[in-house]
Structure formats: C-alpha cells, structure tokens
Design brief:
Distance between the termini: 30 Å
Order of helices and strands: HEEEHHEHEHEHEHEHHEE
Number of domains: 1
Oligomer: single chain
CATH architecture: 3-Layer(aba) Sandwich
CATH superfamily: Vaccinia Virus protein VP39
Number of helices: 9
Strand content: 15-25%
Largest sheet: 7 strands, mixed
Helix content: 25-40%
CATH topology: Rossmann fold
C-alpha cells in the first residue's frame, strides 16, 4: 500500500511539507508543536523529501482502508489534476479489490476522470449532495472534496460540506472512514504564506475556529451521537474520522 502512495505522489511536484520525525515544516515554517510517533513506519525515502500537503493524511487513510475487505469507496469532487485522487483510489481497488465511485458537478471533469480510470470505477456528473442522498449501496470509505473554498468567504463551501455529511451518514456501514480535504487544523497547515493566511491566522487567534470544507463535520456527527460514535484520527490540512454505527 505504501508503494501506491509513494509512486502516486512522486508525480506531484508540490513539496509543501516535510516531517523530520518530530515536527512538521510547511513552506519553511516549522511547527511549534511536536508530533512524535504520529507517522510510524515511514520509509527512508519518505523521510528524505518533501510532499504535497495532503500526503500524510492520504497515507493514513489508505492504511485504514486496507483493513476493509473489498471496500466501497466514494469521492465527491472528482480529481483529474492536482492530487489526482480519483486515479489513486482507482489504483487502490485494482490492486486490493473493491469499487470506487466519484461524482462531480462539472461535466468536463467527469469526462476527463472517466477516461483516466478503469472499468472497476465509475464517474458521475451530478450534484454531490443529491448523489449521496440517493446512493444505493452502503459505504466503507469516503473522500469529501467538492466545492472549491474561498478562504475569505468560506461559508458556501462549509455549508455544502455540512449537507454532504448529513446526506452521507445514513449510507455508512457499521464501521467506516471519512477523509475531508481543505479543513486545516490551524493556520500553520495552510499550504501558502500570504495575506490570506495572515487574515485566517487573525481570525483563528480571535475565535479559535478554522474555516474549511469540513468545519461543521463534527457538529453533524455530534448531532447524531445517538446513532454514531467517532474518532478524529489525524488532522492536518485534511481531517480523517473513523465512524462507528451504534
């Protein structure tokens, strides 16, 4: 599984983040907090070079995914560029089994992704919330990455993410995993250093709250505490939850 992640991200020339075994370095800025043993089993190759800001969360997500037999994986916000997550999940199921469904509201993106994935995967051109509401299978793993976020006007993306979570929960299996992109735990994990980051940092200092696509995810999970319990596994620029039906 590690080989899949390494080879996939080798194609992405965005060395935003380093992990020196204790601290993270993003765009040359070292984290104030240490993170000992949070990434066990890193290879020497992984430790020597920088990675895309989402490398470690994808690595952890696929480690968790490996515990599911023939998983049903769903992605909102198909990716034919950047991280190219659609290809990554397609590669995974071709090696380990399962099925992969990805949805995007942009027909160009859907067509481009459909041409790049195997027949074991399927791309849909629909609104992601409606797609999740009407999905007719139980889901093991989900990657939520639809609706581009504007960091200075984040509520539209955040509210869309909240609706996705609400639509998703009824379709989860007894145990499942959720990865949500563009949901930084702090301003440190923003993969840019500019005026926007300064404004987000100022907001965080005042409110202790970070904007993001998944900023209301825990609120939705807590509102359904009679049906689900959850664990936040890893939170950097993206966040991973393990969710268990009660």
């Amino acid at each position: 599984m590690t080989d899949i992640v390494i080879q996939h991200f080798l194609k992405i020339n965005e060395p935003d983040l380093y992990f020196d075994g204790e601290r993270y370095i993003v765009k040359g800025e070292k984290s104030k907090d240490s993170f000992p043993n949070i990434h066990e089993g890193l290879t020497e190759e992984e430790m020597k070079r920088g990675h895309h800001i989402n490398y470690y969360t994808f690595r952890k997500f696929l480690e968790l995914l490996k515990t599911f037999e023939n998983p049903t994986i769903v992605e909102t916000g198909s990716s034919a560029w950047g991280v190219n997550s659609s290809t990554l999940f397609d590669t995974y199921i071709n090696k380990y089994g399962g099925e992969f469904h990805t949805v995007d509201i942009n027909p160009y993106t859907t067509n481009k992704v459909q041409q790049s994935i195997s027949t074991l995967s399927k791309a849909y051109n629909r609104d992601s919330v409606e797609f999740l509401k009407n999905f007719n299978k139980k889901i093991d793993a989900v990657y939520l990455d639809s609706y581009d976020i504007d960091w200075l006007n984040y509520e539209p993306a955040a509210q869309h993410g909240k609706k996705e979570m609400e639509a998703l929960l009824p379709h989860l299996k007894d145990k499942s995993i959720i990865l949500i992109d563009d949901t930084p735990s702090s301003p440190f994990f923003l993969p840019f250093r500019n005026d926007q980051q300064c404004l987000v940092s100022n907001l965080f200092d005042i409110t202790s709250s970070m904007p993001g696509k998944g900023m209301y995810a825990e609120e939705v999970l807590q509102a359904n505490a009679d049906k689900f319990r959850y664990t936040k596994v890893l939170h950097m620029y993206a966040v991973i939850f393990e969710v268990e039906r009660i």
